[in-house]
Design a protein that fits this description.
single chain; 376 residues; Aspartate Aminotransferase, domain 2; Aspartate Aminotransferase, domain 1; seven-stranded mixed sheet; 13 helices; 36% helix
Length: 376
């Protein structure tokens, strides 16, 4: 089966991880610090490494002070964690519709959704295309909220020349194997604000306070540490951080190859009226994570099954978050965000990863064309 996404692991990656096994630090050591420093170069701001993209969202919402009685505006065309991580803090999640072309949070819809209790507005870089950061920052800041960019798909991308990681108050990253770089499991929180970075660092390490100048009982003993606010263990091990630093050295190459594959698919479907290829707005230089083909004739499921039967591992990304029973049981109903639901009904992710060959791309595109009645 040709997968829709797959990690690219080199001998340098293996050597980087193996080297850590010979040190005194398997976790919470120098490899983590190096990885955070390497990420900061790419993202333009300090980074806090954590155990997953979901953990990054949970940590970011904690750093933002999200809690009961507060509202968080979320784009629905995303993996459920963008919303569920806020709900786990006790927030009321308000879904706002996406733009029809990119699938990203629509600023006008977000503006209509904010309330006096809104603490965070969360946009998602769907498929790797950066959010419309300027208008969304204005929407968030005008109501006293923070802008969070869920950039699980887009590390290495830019928007009007600014890197992903320097567009929002908080940016969250994911390093799952299918993403643009991997640490096996892992993620990060990035922010230009020192207070948010400090909050993220505290929450990912149980909320422990070791600085004696900040402790309430500093004379307890040299072993003493305190918890002033609850946190969790979201520490990324040095083993995985070393893999991340090694992968970052190839991020530009990964991004370039993904762009080549993306363009090859675009060319293959240029004359196919039954599908719509991904949109790209002026100023966007995406680090494409997905190739979200849109099937316009109501045959998305049939094409999905046709390709799977021929060993092509297509995927659908994503069911609108509020369709999940956990949100339905809270009273959310289908029809809430029409653009997101239409996008979902058409969307099909074709294989896209750096080691995909041109012949693989051509075979996938040829099968799509065959199904839709076009010559290869």
């Amino acid at each position: 089966m040709l997968p829709y996404g797959r990690q690219s692991i080199s001998s340098d990656d293996v050597e980087a991880v193996t080297a850590v096994l010979g040190t005194d630090w398997l976790t919470t050591g120098p490899a983590v610090t190096r990885f955070e420093d390497d990420l900061a170069v790419v993202c333009g701001n300090p980074a806090v490494a954590v155990t997953s993209g979901t953990a990054a969202l949970h940590v970011a919402y904690a750093a933002a002070g999200v809690g009961p009685g507060q509202d968080v505006v979320v784009a629905p065309l995303t993996f459920v964690a963008t919303a569920s991580a806020a709900a786990l803090h006790g927030a009321n999640v308000i879904f706002a519709d996406v733009s029809e072309d990119t699938g990203n949070l629509d600023p006008d819809a977000a503006k209509a959704a904010v309330t006096p209790n809104t603490t965070v507005v969360s946009g998602v870089d769907y498929a790797g295309h950066p959010i419309d950061a300027g208008p969304l920052r204005e929407v968030a800041h005008d109501t006293g909220a923070l802008l969070l960019e869920d950039a699980a798909h887009s590390v290495g991308g830019t928007w009007h020349g600014r890197p992903v990681g320097d567009l929002a108050d908080l940016t969250t990253l994911s390093f799952f194997p299918t993403k643009n770089l991997t640490t096996a499991e892992g993620g990060a929180v990035v922010s230009p604000r020192a207070d948010l970075v400090a909050g993220a660092r505290s929450f990912r390490n149980h909320g422990l306070v070791r600085d004696k100048d900040s402790q309430r009982f500093p004379d307890e003993g040299p072993w003493h540490q305190e918890v002033h606010a609850f946190g969790l263990n979201y520490r990324l091990p040095d083993l995985l951080a070393a893999l991340g630093s090694s992968q970052l050295a190839r991020l530009a190459a990964f991004r370039a190859r993904r762009s080549e594959i993306h363009a090859r698919y675009d060319a293959a479907f240029a004359d196919v009226a039954e599908v719509r290829t991904p949109s790209r707005r002026h100023g966007a230089d995406p680090a494409w994570h997905l190739y979200p083909l849109r099937v316009l004739d109501g045959r998305r499921r049939a094409l999905f099954e046709f390709l799977r039967e021929r060993e092509v591992g297509v995927q659908v990304n994503y069911i609108p978050a509020y369709w999940h029973p956990v949100f339905a049981d809270l009273g959310y109903r289908r029809g809430l965000c029409p653009n997101a639901e239409t996008y979902y009904s058409q969307q099909l992710s074709l294989p896209l990863f750096p080691d995909l060959t041109d012949s693989d791309v051509d075979r996938v595109a040829g099968l799509v064309r065959e199904f839709l009645g076009h010559s290869a």
